[in-house]
Amino acid sequence: MGKRKYTSQFKTSLVIQYLKGGRSQAEICRENSINPNLLNKWVGQFQNQASSIFEQGKQNEHQKKIERLERIIGKQTVEIDFLKRGLSMFSP
Questions:
Q1: In this structure, are residues 34 and 14 in contact, taking their beta carbons and an 8 Å threshold?
Q2: What is the pLDDT, as a whole number, of residue 10?
Q3: Reduced to 3 states, what is the DSSP secondary structure of residue 57?
Q4: Residue-level pLDDT at 57
Q5: Per-residue pLDDT at 82 exceeds 80
Q6: Residues 25, 30, 35, 40: what is their CA dihedral angle, to the nearest 10 degrees?
Q7: Which residues contact 44 (CB under 8 A, 6 or more apart)?
Q8: What is the reported pTM?
Q9: Using CB atoms within 10 A of its CB, is residue 82 exposed (0-12), middle (13-18) or buried (19+)?
Q10: Among residues 51, 46, 60, 54, which one has the least CA distance to residue 16?
Q11: Residue 49 has pLDDT above 90, yes or no
């Protein structure tokens, strides 16, 4: 039997249930037919990557800057090609 695939929404839901408390890890795992080690792995991943949620704004700013620079480069490339063709007409 192959590995089961779990959606990110499913994983997040279980991790949040676990972190909120009120229900034991064993209960959550039993009700969802998952191994406690797997839930521990997801909790660790969640905790390690939680700070990246607040960095998305920075990533968007960087992406916008990259897109703007790529447009400038594209425009300059077209202009350079145009000028090269014009010069070749006057070259012997």
A1: yes
A2: 95
A3: helix
A4: 66
A5: yes
A6: -20
A7: none
A8: 0.57
A9: exposed
A10: 46
A11: no
Q: Which two tokens stand for residue 62?
A: 């960087």
Please state, rounded to an integer, the average pLDDT across all residues of the chain. Answer: 89
**Radius of gyration over alpha carbons of the chain, in Å?**
26
Average pLDDT over residues 29-58: 88
- Show Cβ contacts of residue 19 under 8 Å, excluding neighbours closer than 6 positions: 43, 46
Domain segments of the chain as ranges: 8-90
Distances (CA, A) of 55 to 17, 72, 80, 92: 24, 26, 37, 57
Name residue, tokens 């795992």: 29
